[in-house]
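Title: Prediction job returns without error message
Component: structure pipeline
Severity: low
Priority: P3
Assignee: unassigned

Description:
Job completed but the reporter wants confirmation the result is attached to the right record. Sequence as submitted:
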Amino acid sequence: MAETMPTLAFLSALAMFLSPLVEKGKWLATITAVLSLLAFVQSPFEGIHQSGGSALIIVTAMCGMIQYHIYNGVNKKYLNGFGGAVTFVLLLAMYPESGIKETVNEYTTTEGVIAIFESILAGIVLAQLMYNSINFDTKNSIGILLIIVLLGLLSNLVSYSELFVVTISLCFIGFLPFLEERITSRIGSGKGRANALAISTLIGIILIFAITYASLSSVNRIGDGNGAIAVALWLTVAVTAIGLIGMLLPLFGFDEHPRPEAWGWRLGLSVSAILISLQTDLSGHLLLGIALAILISVSSPLVLEKGQQKVAQ
């Protein structure tokens, strides 16, 4: 990342990520958006058809939307921290170290405008998923799902594996409140909470490994033998480690949830694929297993806890 503006945008994203440690930083999202936009303007227009140019526009739209929510009183520390982390990952994974270069390919102005519009939509979706995770809204959720489906069917953005992983992972986070609200109203102070947590966690780990192994077996460079087992194992270990770190969040004050350790486990699982995508392009193979592990974790109190009093909705 040798160019000045992308480097400054990257540093601004890092400042966003660290801003929850201090009280200032209300306008950091705007600064990051402006720097990203300037970086795109200074690059060849055809850069929008490359991962680097698309990442800059996505970050611009996402940070602009984050700033809008912060201005309207939504949790500044949460959105800045989360948005900074996602921006950090997108720029690091999608923007080439040598910068955006001109190519021999020819694109029309219309194709460029459409690509910009698609990237703007993707950025807005990412910001709205973060917003949804703390202020769940049904209409907002339906709109998000429709846009994701349309982008998946009509755009080439899903070809960027890093963006795909980030989007699906944020869907986990953005729709967790919907699942948790449906379950929380049905569970009481049941016995065996520790056993339920342990069993659901173990089942989740087994599912992640099994499904990841099955998915990796179709990758030619890995094969379906010991290679697939080894890769699936270290990917599962990485996901498990991040999930277990999430379980420690209640020790730092994040204990307002009915099952805080289980919530921390689910949050860790949700962000794990994003973090792993910085190391390997195989992180997408984890997503299905992670989704099932999250569903097991959410629903386990209804099945595994004893003596609970279910409350009708």
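Comment from assignee: result matches the submitted record. The chain has two domains: 4-177, 186-304.
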